[in-house]
Backbone:
């Protein structure tokens, strides 16, 4: 399924340079509010304490506030709280988690995602992994070491983030299934192939991708991994970021 990432960040959105560190983990959050309140807070000049890379609405919309190349202010902890951390990756690395994580906020209060929201979140996890592959040539495995919740970083202040009803088992299963299907040709009806061709054809006409990707659609040999890869390339180049469009395997 094709999804659009809507850029919402502005000059007030908090972020910092990663200092050369490659993101290696995804952290899931719950917004404890609406999508509109999330948009407002992450764009507010009065907010000098937090931000996130992405937000996923109950209706499946995806908003982006911070570029993946930069660190958002979502997962930081003070030195005195490090002994309370439960996430093995945070314990192992021993530095500010913001430096190596990508954060996803989910609209809601208890983690009970709508079906549209769940599917969008699964797609976004996959998009982030492919983006990291394309940009840095590194893999981001879909396991409970690399895909975690905020409560595992800050169990004192955020013990229920992303919520007691967050679908962890279903998420890991969906992400694992997608890993298994990465090398299979996309299974789609004629109308879906036409939609994919329209999307990639427009990107080709705008100079964002090479013709080979359109040809794969015409030949119906495009795989899910390749499609995720080329969508990540299109989004990156739309932001003026030069990435490799030739190697979907990273």
Residues:
């Amino acid at each position: 399924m094709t999804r659009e990432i809507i850029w919402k960040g502005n000059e007030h959105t908090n972020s910092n340079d990663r200092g050369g560190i490659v993101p290696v983990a995804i952290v899931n959050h719950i917004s404890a509010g609406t999508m509109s309140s999330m948009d407002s807070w992450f764009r507010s000049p009065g907010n000098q304490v937090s931000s996130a890379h992405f937000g996923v609405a109950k209706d499946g919309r995806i908003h982006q506030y911070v570029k993946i190349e930069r660190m958002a202010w979502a997962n930081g902890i003070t030195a005195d709280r490090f002994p309370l951390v439960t996430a093995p990756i945070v314990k192992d690395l021993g530095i500010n988690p913001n430096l190596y994580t990508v954060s996803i906020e989910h609209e809601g209060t208890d983690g009970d995602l709508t079906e549209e929201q769940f599917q969008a979140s699964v797609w976004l996890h996959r998009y982030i992994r492919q983006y990291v592959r394309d940009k840095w040539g590194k893999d981001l495995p879909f396991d409970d070491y690399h895909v975690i919740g905020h409560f595992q970083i800050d169990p004192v202040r955020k013990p229920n983030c992303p919520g007691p009803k967050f679908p962890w088992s279903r998420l890991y299963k969906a992400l694992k299934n997608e890993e298994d299907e990465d090398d299979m040709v996309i299974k789609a009806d004629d109308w879906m192939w036409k939609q994919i061709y329209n999307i990639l054809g427009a990107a080709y006409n705008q100079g964002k991708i090479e013709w080979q990707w359109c040809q794969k659609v015409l030949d119906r040999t495009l795989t899910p991994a390749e499609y995720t890869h080329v969508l990540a390339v299109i989004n990156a180049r739309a932001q003026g970021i030069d990435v490799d469009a030739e190697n979907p395997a990273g």
The CA atoms of residues 67 and 239 lie 9 Å apart. The first strand starts at residue 5 and ends at 7. Helices lie at 35-42, 88-93, 115-136, 168-181, 190-205, 211-219, 224-238.
